[in-house]
Design a protein that fits this description.
The chain has 60 residues and is α+β, with helices and mostly antiparallel strands. The protein has one domain: Recoverin, domain 1 (Orthogonal Bundle). The protein has 3 helices and 3 strands; from the N terminus they run E-H-H-E-E-H. It has a 3-stranded antiparallel β-sheet. The longest helix has 16 residues. The chain is globular and about 40 Å long.
């Protein structure tokens, strides 16, 4: 299990910070989790699953 910081998520998805948080608000992007008591991060597998679902829906 690997956690990604916001910048890593931005680099991986090519989304900007505001787009990520807007998608989270609408339920269209994985939520971040609290790590080590206060840091926020995303599970890399959640981000990769989200990216795969976007690619699959684009193929339809």
């Amino acid at each position: 299990m690997k956690f990604l910081k916001l910048q890593q998520v931005m680099d991986k998805t090519t989304l900007c910070r505001s787009s990520i948080y807007n998608l989270i608000k609408t339920g269209d992007f994985p939520k971040n989790v609290t790590v080590m008591g206060k840091r926020k991060a995303w599970l890399e597998s959640d981000i990769e699953d989200w990216m795969m679902s976007k690619m699959e829906s684009a193929e339809l």
